[in-house]
Amino acid sequence: MMRPDRIADRTAHRMLPQSAAGWLALAAVVGVLAVLPLSATPYYTGLVTTAMIGAMLALALHLLVGATGLVSLGHGAFYGLAAYIVYLMSPEGAPRPIWVTLPSAMLVAGIAALLVGALSLRTKGFFFLMVTLAFGQMFFFVFHDTKLGGGTDGAYLAKPLIQAFGLTLDPKELPRAQRGWPAYYVALVQLVVTYLGLAFLLNSLFGRVLEGIKVNEHRMEAMGFAVHRYKLAAFVIAGMLSGAAGHMWSLHSGFVNPELVSWHKSAEALLMILLGGIGSLAGAIAGAFAYVALGEAAQLATERKLLVEGVVILAAVILLRNGIMGIGSSLPGMAEPKESSALEIDGPPSQQETSVHAASE
Amino acid sequence: MSGFLSQLLNGLQYGLLLFLIASGLTLIFGVLGIINLAHGSLFMIGAYLAFLVTKATGSLWFALPVGIGAGLVIGAVLERVLFRYFYDREHLDQVLVTFALILIFEEMRSLVVGNDFYSVPVPAALDFSIPITAGFSYAAYRFFVIGACLVLAAALITWIERTNMGAVIRAAAEKPEMVDILGLDARRVHLTVFAVGTALAVTAGGLAAPLTSVYPNMGDGMLIISFVVVVIGGLGSVSGAFFAALLIGLIDTLGKAYGQAFAGSGLGNIIAACASMAVYILMVIVLLFRPAGLFGRRA
Amino acid sequence: MQPLNDMPGGVLATQALSKAFGGLRAVDDVTLALNVGELHAVIGPNGAGKSTFVNLLTGQLPPTSGRILLEGRDITGTPAWRMPHLGIARSFQRTNILKSLSVLENVRLAVQAVRLPAARVLRKPARETALIETARRAINRVGLIGFDRVQSGVLSHGAQRQLEIAMALAVDPKVLLLDEPLAGMGQEEGERMAVLLQSLAKEHALLLIEHDMDFVFRVADRMTVLVEGAVLASGKPADVRADPAVQAAYLGGRG
To answer: For residue B15, what are the domain limits?
Structure first.
């Protein structure tokens, strides 16, 4: 006797909504976000922008952690590096168009990720974690210890110009209460594009290879996959997307400091992924919003924000095995055993299976 | 010349402190399979503990034994209350739990002591310099730190190489299931390793406090460099950690001391930057040619 | 490339292949050749170096010395992931499948690895129907008809062994290396496996690693006995059975 959840449809990627209802929910969320600044105060609009940027970084890291099974502590560095690239290209008072800064920031982040990835992917497991962390901190120390980017205090930069169809949108010309809107809407568009792009990537044959690597890297290699190249590709794509998120941060805040490059950024993004649930892209986004909301609530409730955060993280890791998105479906007893051999079947699959593997459609 | 000798001794002393931290990291990680990102925070706790006890009693001499004892207790409590539930969990869970510990430890530090820098006085008995050559003398306390680290390192290595539990630890670092096969209570081994590893980091913090002062997030930098030590030394290898720690202590100290001399010209700035990142460059070289570490077995 | 003169024939051949771990010679100077249409069994007691030998052939381990030739071409030192592309596929002694994925996805990935042109890697899986059809045929061939959508990790042990073989044969390799496919199988499953192996041997050069002597004598066309990494005897089963060295070293203890 086979339980329905044993049928392997769950192994198919569910990165995009699977039903009309799912697409409607997605559209509704985007719709709410699209009109939110009209009713929210500038402070909360800015907070949601921050959450969306966090979500972009979490999505980028999800490609490695959730989809490929590689826990990197170095991608915060690519995020911060990209923000610093904007500073180096357009210091305060000398803005450049977003069409120049965004590709540049992503390119530099991608090259950095290629170098770091090529080296750190020579190691596995804990070693990979430590090496990505160490390389990430190397970038941190470059900006922390040298005058390259304003040193420990950080520096102001010229926010990239938002240009389209020959028109330039200058936030300073807007009413004070609406100055955060351009960054907000750019972030919203970028978040949606990142989500759809990653969903497309993970639903492709490339995504299937990453999933296989996550499940059993050794077997994938024996089957004939150049595992190292796939992992490096995922590492670099994640690096470029982290760079895009870091670029967005510069556009939002107009300020860089070494904290942006620190490994704590990577840890925060990992936390967002865990909070939201590691099984889906939507989880990374939900987790980012939850994390920002948590920080805000902790700030309001107490002077000791980090203490509250730390305790909540502990509780989340211990109790919330499948994240926010998994609440309800992950009640005790439903958790998947590591080895499923306990539940063996000998006959053909039962007739009650209703779901179909994506590949067989 | 005397300047060079002084930097050499500084590098030796720094490397030995690094060994105390990295050996705990590599042991915990080799035997228990736990990656403890809060290991740097334990160093920080040790330093602040030394500051507090010194302030209360007037002398670091009380602080050091208190640090060792507190370290053992903190380690044992952490292992029993938290870490033993994470031996079989995913890396991601371990990373986040230990990251949460960093936040909690830092906030508790801020709660108890605040966010200021404090200096910790060198014990009066060691507050002098020992003349080495004509015109060069070296602080007695730094010699004391070198000596104390060497004693601790020797004790640790003797424990691992010569005792029954040490044999189990060596075996477990290679194959975790060996603990049960060799008949020693796995719980006891885990508890001991975690407590000793923690105590080493806390003690290192106490020894370093008079040299570096105490300040927020002081554990972060040590954590990263300890990782580099473990990567270069090889997984679970205490002797590897010893040599890698000395190597890195010397390279980092000398690189930072002499790299700046080149700064000024374009090429000189690059040399200076490379010298200050010499540790990472060394890690790159090791990863290229010996991905399992200088003393690690090939996977 | 023209075959060299001093080379033994066969699709896949080894010349004085050796592997040492420290002082231990796990595989010691093994020379043998596999031919299409021939089921070649390698037998030997535990620790005889059988699995190490397969790991050398598939690039999982680099040999200490000696050469591996595929259709006369020296492929020694080729990385493991290249081997299926050259036409060498294997199964593992300890079941090594993607347990959380469906049976179909396991085999489909094996086909994708070898058959999918890199330019099409961003297409949707469902659109590459040729991969799916090829995978299905392999699944049916090993007897897992109707199991396509089942999560492979919940299959019985015997079915997982069958899946292992489906993953290897799906890409229609020149050489099939099967490392103890019968390990842990029941009597009846073993019988079915014997039929499958003999039919596979008609189309591929098949190397079978096995420790069950009776089974090997029944199905093998040619066999090699490894003891402590070295070839003790090699030839037709009847000749090997009669070989005095084999009698003394291996069969003697069996009464």
So the answer is: 2-217
How distant is the Cα of C239 from the closest Cα of chain A, in angstroms? 35
Domains observed in chain C: 1-87+174-255 (3.40.50.300), 97-172 (no CATH)
The mean pLDDT of A135-157, rounded to a whole number, is 86
Tell me which H or E stretch contains B67: helix B60-81
Question: Do you know the residue count of chain C?
Answer: 255
Interface test with B, best of A122, A127, A262, A322 (most B CBs within 10 A): A127
Q: Is residue A275 part of a domain?
A: no
DSSP class per residue in A228-240:
HHHHHHHHHHHHH
Q: Whole-model pTM? A: 0.88
Neighbouring chains of C at 3+ CB pairs under 8 Å are: A
**Tell me: the pLDDT tens digits for C172-213?**
999 999 999 888 888 888 888 889 999 999 999 999 998 888
| Tally of structural domains, chain B | 1
How many folded domains does chain A comprise?
1
The answer to whether residues C240 and C223 touch, using CB atoms and an 8 Å cutoff, is yes
CB contact under 8 Å between A313 and B35, yes or no, is no
Question: Containing domain of residue A250, as a range?
Answer: 44-262
- Cβ distance of A209 and C156 shorter than 8 Å: no
Residues of B in contact with A263 (CB under 8 A): 224
Residues 6+ apart with CB under 8 A from B41: B101, B102, B105, B106, B219, B223
Could B107 and A310 be called an inter-chain contact, meaning their C-beta atoms sit closer than 8 Å?
yes
Q: Do C147 and A212 touch (CB under 8 A)?
A: no
CB contact under 8 A, A129 and B287: no
Q: Which of C161, C110, C153 is nearest to A8 (CA)?
A: C153
In chain C, residues 161-180 whose CB comes closer than 8 Å to chain A? 167, 171
User: Are residues A209 and C112 in contact, defined by beta-carbon separation less than 8 angstroms?
Assistant: yes
